[in-house]
Amino acid sequence: MTAFKSLTRVHSWALNEKRQKLAGIEDLVNKMKNDLQELEKDVETESSIANSSIEGTVAFPAFIAAALERRRRLRHTIGELEASVEAAREEVRAAFEEMKKYEHVSDLKAREEQEEAMRREQIDLDDLGAEIYRRGQAASSDE
């Protein structure tokens, strides 16, 4: 295996790791967004319960204060994670470009090796053809 193929494999692994990291962050963002939606549903449910009973009206302000704080923290975390997603996407893009460079050089090197092997084979065939011709000329002059 050539050095370029080894480097291509190493960069391919690095790219896969970066893609997995990106997918993990995106999954976390989606989970946080789902949690935020669930919180919004809970607020609506508790609001309707609070409007229908005296006990609910008393407990609702404490619930809403905690829910608003949790919503603020979730939104803050989502914002940070989305920034991390962008950074991870940039890392994936850079790793992909780097891997493609090594793949391209590896392909060029393989093509050069193949062309060199074909050139050597053609030289051998030309030498064989010349030898056969000489033998034929020598055989015809001996007759």
Structural description of this entry:
The chain is rod-shaped and about 125 Å long. The chain has helices at residues 3-52, 54-142. The chain has one domain: Helix Hairpins. The mean pLDDT is 89. The two termini are 54 Å apart. It is built from 2 helices and no strands.
Q: Count of DSSP helices? A: 2
Give me the CATH architecture, please: Orthogonal Bundle
Name the CATH class.
Mainly Alpha
Rg from Cα? 35 Å
Spell the H/E element sequence. Answer: HH
Strand content is under 5%
Molecular shape: rod-shaped
What is the CATH T-level topology?
Helix Hairpins
State the domain count: 1
Number of strands: 0
Distance between the termini: 54 Å
- Mean of all residue-level pLDDT scores: 89
Main sheet characteristics: none
**Share of helix, binned:** over 70%
The assigned structural class equals: mainly alpha
Low-confidence stretches: none
Keywords:
single chain, 143 residues
Task: Please outline what is shown here.
The chain is mainly α.
Can you lay out the helices and strands and say which pair or pack?
Blueprint: H1 3-52, H2 54-142
